[in-house]
Design brief:
This protein is an alpha+beta fold. The protein has a single domain, classed as SUI1-like domain (Translation Initiation Factor Eif1, 2-Layer Sandwich), CATH 3.30.780. It is built from three helices and five strands, in the order H-E-E-H-E-E-H-E. It has helices at about 15-25, 55-65, 80-90, and strands at about 25-35, 40-45, 70, 75-80, 100. A five-stranded mixed beta sheet has the order 3-4-2-1-5, covered by helices on one side. A hairpin with a 2-residue loop joins strand 3 (about 70) and strand 4 (about 75-80). The radius of gyration is 15 Å and the shape is elongated. The chain starts with 16 loop residues before the first helix and ends with a strand. Belongs to the SUI1 family.
């Protein structure tokens, strides 16, 4: 007997909770300056209960070819990757209207 998702009530292999959550996230992408003048792209605004932030960070780091980390519910990427991060998030299923790039 397959496991049932507690949120949507569907079997785990048919669960659509993460897909629905991706469309509802209000994401902010911005650049900050860190120690020694280095730039850091911050992708913020994820609901960690619904989206696997660590897996998303790994995919962003692989595609952007940079280092980075996950702090609380935000992803930090080394360098200025605002445009590339926005394109990647849109391809992953996040709504273009809900992504705010500064």
């Amino acid at each position: 007997m397959p496991e049932i998702c507690p949120i949507c009530g569907l079997p785990k292999d048919l669960c659509v909770c993460e897909e629905i959550a991706k469309e509802e996230q209000k994401i902010k992408v911005y650049v900050t300056k860190r120690r020694f003048g280095k730039l850091m792209t911050v992708v913020d605004g994820f609901d960690a209960d619904l989206i696997d932030v660590k897996d998303l960070a790994k995919k962003l780091k692989d595609i952007c070819a940079c280092g980075g980390t996950v702090k609380k519910d935000s992803i930090e990427l080394q360098g200025d990757h605002r445009k590339k991060a926005e394109e990647i998030l849109i391809k992953m299923g996040f709504s273009k209207d809900m992504i705010d790039v500064r």
